[in-house]
Amino acid sequence: MVDISVINSTAQPLTGSDQDYDALLSLIGDARFVLLGESTHGTQEFYKERAIITQRLIAEKGFSAVAIEGDWPDAYRVNRYVCNQSDDSSATDSLLGFERFPTWMWRNTEVVRFINWLRKLNDSHLPSLSKIGFYGLDLYSLFTSIDEILKYLDSVDSSAAADARARYACFDRFERDSQLYGYAIGMKGISETCENAVVDQLLEIYKKTQKYLEHDGSEATDALFYAQQNARLVKNAEEYYRNMLNHRVSSWNMRDKHMMEILQNLDKHISQKHNTPAKIVVWAHNSHLGDARATEMGQQGELNVGQLMRQAYGKEVFLLGFTTYHGSVTAASDWGMPAQHKNVRPALHGSYEDYFHQTGIDKFFLPIKKNCLLQETLSFEKSLERAIGVIYAPHTERQSHYFHANIVAQFDAIIHIDKTHALRPLEITGHWVDGEAPETYPVGL
Predict the structure, then answer these.
(1) pLDDT band at 218 (very low <50, low <70, confident <90, very high)
(2) Which residue segment(s) compose the domain that 433 sits in?
(3) Is position 120 within any domain?
(4) pLDDT of res. 155
(5) Is the bond leading into 102 cis (omega within 30 degrees of zero)?
(6) CA distances from 286 to 29, 132, 206, 372, 387 (A)
(7) Do residues 390 and 375 make contact, with C-beta atoms less than 8 angstroms apart?
(8) Inside any domain, residue 112
(9) Quick one: 360 and 312 in the same domain?
């Protein structure tokens, strides 16, 4: 049995004071990469606290970029806005690129508050080379990224733009539907792949780096970097969708390897631009940022960004997970369905969330790194841990949302908020307002 008194004696209550995260920043130390997780994709408190921590990392430790579990071109539109380089008139407008399900992940009130803060900071006193950026790591934007590459090449090299259109024409018959491409390729004989075309285009845009950098100023460097990462995304997305009908682990690993690749390229780009090692905050789900080797998914062959970052950067990486016991969440009942305001059931007995609930502390920071007694207590045996993504299925809670993990090997620290509330989307629909029926509601009615 886990000794709850050890957790109690280690947990540091969070009261909302300015000093709440002093101990966390001390524990982070000189880490260049701070990965801030979430155990759901629709919890208001997780977004709010990540923003507070990120603001302190930027202000007190010189962090220079935020990278999110979102698509590269959509996030780059926000980047242009916070750096005062776009025509968008507001933070809300800058988030309009996030059109793909689930829109509430980034089109929500907490993100708007953070984007406004970032724009104000950048406008106030930072020179152009030192502005704090906002970037996306994900790979779902195959067709949007193609559009952005063509737009860039039209502006710098019309001949290369024509060649790129010819290569990407391979996708034309799929009606800008990435999954349709995947299904067509997965069913043998239906269609030829676009693999060679996207690889050739990636190589071509890198081959002409010097030519495109002849344009003046840092904006030309940023524009080329943006286009190069879009080309890389198209190459990786083509592979992802072509293989999406294979075993789940294969597609998961391709996605997280892509996010790691973009993150490393971002590190190199920012470090060169500022002439100092980059410091980057990452916002993503716990399942991407906690070390996969400490989970049952890792034992099944999954890897993730947290694991890859630790392997590549060692002590320069700090992994922070978030957990909750109960409350509400914004989530859908199935992929592509509307966002709903759903009740989150109390965590299962014997789960880490249950142990944290038993402390009786509403909200606390739990430092795992350098705490041998806590590590010994919590790693006595692997326990259940909950993960809610964009879909929440409370009636199959154990099968759908729990896995075994060793949380002290998975994260360097945990923030537990016992009762949490649903994230508020920018577009409120009747589905979200109505939510779901109480669990006591008569089944037959």
Answers:
(1) confident
(2) 1-63+279-445
(3) no
(4) 94
(5) yes
(6) 21, 24, 34, 23, 8
(7) no
(8) no
(9) yes
